[in-house]
Amino acid sequence: MKLIIFGATGLVGKQLVQQALFNKHHVKAFGRNVYTTDYLETENLQLLQGALFDEVEVYNAIKGCDAVLSAIGGSMDGTDKTRTLGMKNIIKQMQKAGVKRIIGIGGLGVLNADENSLLVDKDDYPPEYKAVGFEHKKAFELLNESGLDWTFVCPPNIINQGPTGSYVTNANYPPEQNKYKINAGDLAMFMLNELGKNEYVKQRVGISN
């Protein structure tokens, strides 16, 4: 497949690039600092230095791809709107380019607490994660309204470790066996596997090691 990876220089983004190349995908790695990152050198990798809010750069990156992988991040205090405004632009340019499939990363708070509310909406949700949780919630709402074939992975604490292949998932709710952590490598592995399996289209995904 021909993939575009946004947030390619981040913790999960670098894992996505490495694993996608290992699996013989053609990869476009998009980010502000892609030329300073030590990627595997291969003819299947194209580095695209660009700004996530630039409509032309994002459209040109997405055009001709089979799917989009979004590992965009930002600060935790709610002042950084990268997760929402970046996702809004990605969605707009996907619609323009006729690309339907996207798998993005949100956060644990966007999963269901019960049938009527999300975890982030609960009074006992940790206050230090509220601001970023609401950013993830808005990104989820944008995807849900987009008409795209989306999957929104909602991990707990992401650990800077490679893939083990041992993790559990659940649709729209946290996994029953939730250790509240996931290796960056396993998160990337799930996202790439989901591209082939399409088990969670138009669903959020809880995941844990």
Summarize the helix and strand pattern as letters.
EHEEHEHEHEEEEHE
CATH architecture: 3-Layer(aba) Sandwich
**DSSP helix count?**
5
Number of self-contained structural domains: 1
Query: Portion of residues in helices?
Result: 25-40%
Strand content: 15-25%
Q: How does this structure look, described?
A:
With 209 residues, the chain is an alpha/beta fold. The protein has a single domain, classed as NAD(P)-binding Rossmann-like Domain (Rossmann fold, 3-Layer(aba) Sandwich), CATH 3.40.50.720. It contains five helices and ten strands; from the N terminus they run βαββαβαβαββββαβ. The chain has helices at residues 11-22, 55-62, 82-97, 130-144, 184-197; strands spanning 2-6, 26-31, 45-49, 67-70, 101-105, 149-154, 157-159, 168-171, 181-183, 203-208. An eight-stranded mixed β-sheet has the order 3-2-1-4-5-6-10-8, sandwiched between helices. Strand 5 (101-105), helix 4 and strand 6 form a beta-alpha-beta unit. The longest helix has 16 residues, at 82-97. The protein is globular, with a radius of gyration of 16 Å.
Summarize it.
The radius of gyration is 16 Å and the shape is globular. The protein contains five helices and ten strands; from the N terminus they run βαββαβαβαββββαβ. The protein has an eight-stranded mixed sheet with strand order 3-2-1-4-5-6-10-8, sandwiched between helices.
